Amino acid sequence: MIRKKGSAKWSGDLTSGQGHVSTESGVLKDQPYGFRERFEGAPGTNPEELIGAAHAACFSMALSLVLAEHGATADEIATTATVSLDKEGDGFAIKTVHLDLTAKVPGLDEAAFQTAANAAKEGCPVSKLLTGAEITLDAKLA
């Protein structure tokens, strides 16, 4: 079993408080996050952006695995994951994630590419984690 850690510290109330997020590897160390970063576009990070980065990275790796299983290797896989935080009742919920993919895969036809991209979307561990959200995909073969 692989275990990775992320951590966060928070001080204050929701709207004027401030937090810092870090990763075990140190790639993120005490990066600021808060209400303004999440809802008003202030500099810093937020949970949705971090989930999007994790999903894009995981999906890209999953696609490279699926392609290898079909004898193909990508020159490039570029993925953006857009995570939507929607108002729901008195709170918020992540209801949708949209994956935008552009890949350069020599020798792979469009049908095989679409099949591989959809298999990666379904097989990616982060996609599996987000089963409560609708995950959509636009895949373009460059």
Topology:
Layout (H helix, E strand, L loop, with lengths): L5 E6 L6 E6 L7 E3 L1 H5 L7 H23 L6 E13 L2 E14 L5 H14 L1 H5 L4 E8 L1
Parallel strand pairs: 5-6
Antiparallel strand pairs: 1-2, 2-3, 4-5
Helix pairs in contact: 2-3
Task: Describe the model.
The chain has 142 residues and is of the alpha+beta class. The protein is 33% helix and 35% strand. The chain is built from four helices and six strands. The strands form two sheets. A three-stranded antiparallel β-sheet has the order 1-2-3. Helix 2 crosses helix 3. The protein is elongated, with a radius of gyration of 17 Å. The N and C termini lie far apart (36 Å). The relative contact order is 0.14. The mean pLDDT is 96.
